[in-house]
Task: structure prediction
Amino acid sequence: MTTVFSKIIEGSIPCNKVFENERILAFHDIEPAAPVHVLIIPKKVIASMNDVQTEDLPLIGEIHAVAQQLAAELGIAETGYRLINNCGPDSGQAVAHLHYHLLGGARLGALTGNSASHA
Ligand code: AMP
Result:
């Protein structure tokens, strides 16, 4: 499935890149939800967390290492940050290509579920 992130990876849509290697690309989110809002994506097309295979686990680990590195480079390692993956409709996942949001640079709101009662 072709997504906007596939087009960013192949270069037909530009991005504000902050990291790239053979397996991973990271770039600033086009609609930042915090002062620092970077998306970290695998170049391999994986639709969502549900589609991660055992063979992908080193890649997932490397994404976390890249998040750690970028947090330091972007000045939020000490102040703190959040790494978020949305998976599926209830999460609001809008792009069907695995991605992690690295958010920081300000006090982030509380993590919430939805407005429905969980009692
Ligand atoms: P999600 O809701 O988890 O699927 O997040 C998708 C994210 O991709 C959103 O935060 C969008 O703002 C972001 N996004 C969509 N298109 C682009 C783009 N061309 N460049 C950078 N970020 C994008």
